[in-house]
C-alpha cells in the first residue's frame, strides 16, 4: 500500500546552496550599485540544476521512483497497487544500461508530458503525465539537466509490470490519451494575478494535487471544471474536498491554517496529514518556498465552492470532550487479547486513550491530537478514521518523526479485527465526530483490502468478457471521436 511508502527524504541542497551563497555575500554588496555582470556559463548551469532539483521536489518524482526497501534515489522498483494490478516505477537515474541515461531531452519530454517511453511504448497514468503535461518547456529543460547531471546513476534492473488482461495492452493508453490528455503547457490567465497563476500551475501540474483530490470519471480520468479538486476516494483513504465550500471544503480554513497544514501536516483542532498526504508533506510540500505555498493557497481559495449535501457542519467543527466512563477504564489493558464483543468504548479505552486521552481531546501540547474538531472524524466518510487505525500515521517534518502505530494485521501493538474497528469507529463518531456516520465490519474489510474498485476494473476483471467488450468500446469511442474531429475541420 502506498501509505507504507517511507521514501528517504531528499536533502534539500538548494536551500543549503542559497544560504551558503547568501552567507558568502558581503552585506555591503547588495547596497553598492555594482554593475550587473553576465553570469558565467558555470553559474548559469548550476542555477539550472538547482532549479531542476527544486522542480523535482515540487513534482515529488522521488516519492514514486524510489523503492523504500533499497532507498536508492530514483532507481525505481516502487510498487504502486492499482485496481488492475501492481505497476512498478522505473529507474530514472542516468544509468545508460538500466535507467534513462541514453534519453535525449526530447525523449524525456515525451515521457514526462505525454507518457511515451523512448521505445515508443505507452506509460500507464500511474506516472502522472496527465498532470505534468502542463509543465513549461523551461521547467522540463531544468528537470532534464538535473536528472542527467546531478542524479547518481544506479545500475538496477527494472521490475516487470504485468497487469491483467486487457490492461496489459499498453496500446490502449493511446486511446485514453486521445480522449483525456490535454496538450500544451500551462498558459497564464491574464485576468488573474501572477500569484494565482503560479498557484494554479503548482496545484494542477507540478504538485499534481488533482491526481488524488479530483474525482474520476468512469474511464478513470480526472474530472475537470467545477468538479476538479472536490474530493475523491483514494484506495483506503479519502482525499477531501479542497474547494472553498464552507462546510465540506476549505472555506472555513484561514490562510495561516492552510500554510501550516501544507508545511507541517498538523493544524491542532482541525486536521492531521496521514497516508498519501503525509507523503506529500514529507517529500515535497514542506520543502517549498514560502511564496509558492502562498500561491497555492491563493489559487485554492479561488476555487468555486462544491458542496457535499450530507455535510451539515464544517468538517473540522464536530464533537466535544467526553470522558470514557470510569466503569470501563483499565478493564482491558493493551496487548492482552481484546474480545470481539467488547464495546467501542472499552476498545477506545484500551487502544487509544493512552495517547488521545480518556476524553478524546489529546494532550495539552497537541502532540497527540484531539479526535473532536478533527476532519478525520467530522467529514462525511469514515475512510480516514478507519485508515488511520489500520495503517497508522507516519510523517517526517523538519527532521522530526511523527508516528502513530497501526492497528492492522502487522501491528506491533494490537491487531484489531474488522468487527472491533467498526465498533470502535462507531463509538468515536458518536462521541467525538460526525454522529451520522455508521461503519459496518464489511466496510472495514473493503478498506483493509485497499478500497472499492472503480467500475472500470470491476467490469474488466481478469480475462472477463467485460474486458474484451471494453477494449472494443474504447476503440469505437476513439474512432468516432476522430471521425467527428475530422468532419469538423
Ligand atoms: C505518482 C507516482 C509517480 C510520480 C510522482 C512520478 N512518476 Fe515517473 N513513473 C511512474 C511509474 C509507475 C512509471 C512506470 C509506468 C509504466 O510502467 O507504465 C514511471 C515512468 C517514468 C519514466 C519512463 C522511464 C522509462 O523508460 O521507463 C520517466 C522518464 C519518468 N517516470 C520520469 C518522472 C519524473 C521526471 C517525475 C517527476 C517530475 C516523475 N516521473 C514522477 C510513477 C511516477
Ligand atoms: C498522493 C495523494 C495526494 C496528493 C498528491 C495531495 N493530497 Fe492532499 N490529501 C490527501 C489525503 C488522502 C488527505 C487526507 C489525509 C488525512 O486526513 O489524514 C489529504 C488532505 C489534504 C488537506 C486537508 C483537508 C481536510 O479536510 O482535512 C489539504 C488542505 C490538502 N490535502 C491539500 C493538498 C494540496 C494543496 C495538494 C497539492 C499541493 C495535495 N493536497 C496533494 C491526498 C493527497
Ligand atoms: C502511541 C500513541 C497513539 C495511540 C495509541 C493512538 N494514536 Fe492516534 N495519533 C497519534 C499521533 C502521534 C497522531 C498524529 C499527530 C500528528 O499528525 O501530528 C495520531 C493521529 C490520529 C488521527 C488523525 C489521523 C488523520 O488522518 O487525520 C486519528 C483519527 C487517530 N489518531 C485515531 C486513533 C485511534 C482511533 C486510536 C486507537 C485505535 C489511536 N489513534 C491510537 C498517536 C496515537
From TrEMBL:
Ranges annotated as spanning the membrane: 459-480
UniProt keyword Repeat, yes or no: yes
Keyword Signal applies: yes
Domain Cytochrome c: 47-151, 194-304, 339-432
Localization per Swiss-Prot or TrEMBL: Cell membrane
Superkingdom assignment: Bacteria
Record-linked SUPFAM superfamilies: Cytochrome c
Keywords: Cell membrane, Heme, Iron, Membrane, Metal-binding, Repeat, Signal, Transmembrane, Transmembrane helix
PANTHER family found in the cross-reference section: ALCOHOL DEHYDROGENASE CYTOCHROME C SUBUNIT, BLL4482 PROTEIN-RELATED
Protein name as it appears in the record: C-type cytochrome
